[in-house]
Structure formats: C-alpha cells, structure tokens
Specification:
Elements: H1 11-28, E1 37-41, H2 47-55, E2 60-63, H3 66-72, E3 82-85, H4 94-100, E4 103-107, H5 110-123, E5 129-136, E6 146-147, H6 151-159, E7 164-171, H7 183-200, E8 206-208, H8 215-220, E9 225-228, H9 230-233
Parallel strand pairs: 1-2, 1-9, 2-3, 3-4, 4-5, 5-6, 5-7, 7-8
Helix pairs in contact: 4-5
This protein binds pyridoxal-5'-phosphate (PLP).
Length: 241
C-alpha cells in the first residue's frame, strides 16, 4: 500500500504517489491536503537528488546531521527551500545548526535551546529561529526527545526566549509493521500539543509526525508536517537509518 520499495521509480513519480496518498488521507480525515507540508528527508542523498525533488515541486527538506548538510549544501542551499534539521542535535553543533538551517525540529533539551539562542543572535539579525520540541513517546528505538513529563516545563522556558519561535511538537514513534498500532502515538502527540496550547496560552500549529511507512496514519491523527525519505528518494544504504 504505502510505497517504500520505490528506488526504481523517479523522484517525480514518487512525489506524485506520495501526494495522492496525502490527498486521500486528508479527505478521509476531513482535512485540507494544503494544510499538510511534505518535508523530504534527503539525508544520505546527493545534492542532485535534492535538486530533482525541488524541480518536482518539493520546498521543504530535512537533514539529520549538521556535518552532512554542511558538506553537501553548496550546490543547493541557494534554492528557495526551507531546510529543516530533524535529527538529534548535540549542543556543541548548535551554533552551526542555527546558521545552516531555517528550523530545528528536534529540540529536546534546555541547554541546547540556550545554545541556539546564543548562536541565532549572531546569525539571524533579529529574525527568529523556528523550533519544534521533540517528544519521546516510549519505545526503545530512539532515545532522543524530551519525556512527556518534562515537556511543559521545557516548553515554558523556550517560550520565554524571544529569539526562538516555538511552533509545535515532533515525534518519532517506534517502528511497527502494523501501521494502525502507531496511531495511538500520533494521537498522544496531538493531545500533548492541545494541553500545551492551553497551558502556554498560544497556538502551536505544527505537528511533525509520520514517515514513509506511517504518514497516512499520522495525517489521520492531525500531522501538519510529514517527514518522508524513502518513499520520495528511494532506499538509503542500510547503514544509515
Ligand atoms: C530518516 C528520517 C525520516 C524519514 O524516514 P523514511 O522512513 O525514509 O521516510 C523521518 N524523520 C526522521 C527524524 C528521520 O531521521
């Protein structure tokens, strides 16, 4: 059903296929497909693949390593796209991340948030750096993300930083073959977001959740950004997740 073995199809064909699935999921959920942003996850992919996806209409790209992006951005960073950091960020790379990305979607720690602030003062000339807080929803697969118990306090502190624009939440649920079983994790992130909106007295419009194999379920639970790698760019080498 969901295309994952797509390496032999072109990026353009893959994107059409993804957009069709997004449209039908949005219809099922009574939502507008235009409210769902595709973040093409281009980690391990060369600049040519990014350009090809851009030419096919993709405007948001996600990379998970600062260093990798630094090495390959030369030929593509001038494209009118939004560059997302979606992977775990070590605080010693925060300054670079604030400089090289428009949005850091994986903030999970107060020290890191403060380092982003310090760096953004230098690079952003008054503009705000968008951030999402990554929430760890259980499962052993990833260790990154703040716990749901620590989320409210972290969010309140980040809200107090005028250099950052807290736009919403992100999660990486465990990988489960049966996509229906992932849905409760997505529902949980939406609930946490709703609670947090009330607590902070501000809207948090962004829910970044859903990857190649489960983005339909994520859309049914309210995802506004889906992070799709394999289904657009084809398989990555197995060494890199
Ligand atoms: C790699 C990655 C994705 C995309 O994974 P696919 O299964 O290839 O779609 C999404 N989000 C994060 C944080 C990732 O690291």
């Amino acid at each position: 059903m969901v295309a994952t073995q797509t390496s032999r199809m072109s990026i353009q064909e893959n994107m059409l296929c993804v957009r069709e699935q997004i449209a039908s999921a949005a219809t099922r959920a009574g939502r507008n497909a235009h409210d769902i942003t595709v973040v093409g996850v281009s980690k391990t992919q060369p600049g040519e693949a990014i350009r090809e996806a851009f030419d096919a209409g993709l405007r948001h790209f996600g990379e998970n390593r600062v260093q990798e992006w630094e090495g390959k951005r030369d030929g593509v960073a001038s494209l009118a796209a939004t560059w997302h950091l979606i992977g775990h960020l070590q605080s010693n790379k925060a300054a670079k991340a604030a400089k090289l990305f428009h949005t850091v979607d994986s903030v999970d720690d107060w020290v890191l948030a403060q380092k982003l602030v310090r760096a953004s003062g230098e690079f952003l000339c008054g503009a705000k750096l968008r951030v999402l807080i990554e929430v760890h929803l259980g499962g052993e697969e990833t260790k990154s993300g703040t716990s749901d118990a620590e989320l409210p306090e972290l969010a309140e502190k980040i809200k107090g930083l005028p250099q950052l624009e807290l736009a919403g939440l992100m999660c990486i649920p465990p990988y489960l073959e049966e996509v229906e079983k992932v849905r409760p994790y997505f529902a949980r992130l939406r609930e946490l977001r709703d609670q947090l909106q009330r607590r902070l007295g501000q809207t948090l419009p962004v829910l970044s959740m859903g990857m190649s194999h489960d983005f339909v379920a994520a859309i049914l639970e309210g995802a506004t950004e889906v992070r799709i790698g394999t289904a657009i760019f084809g398989a990555r080498s197995l060494a890199v997740r």
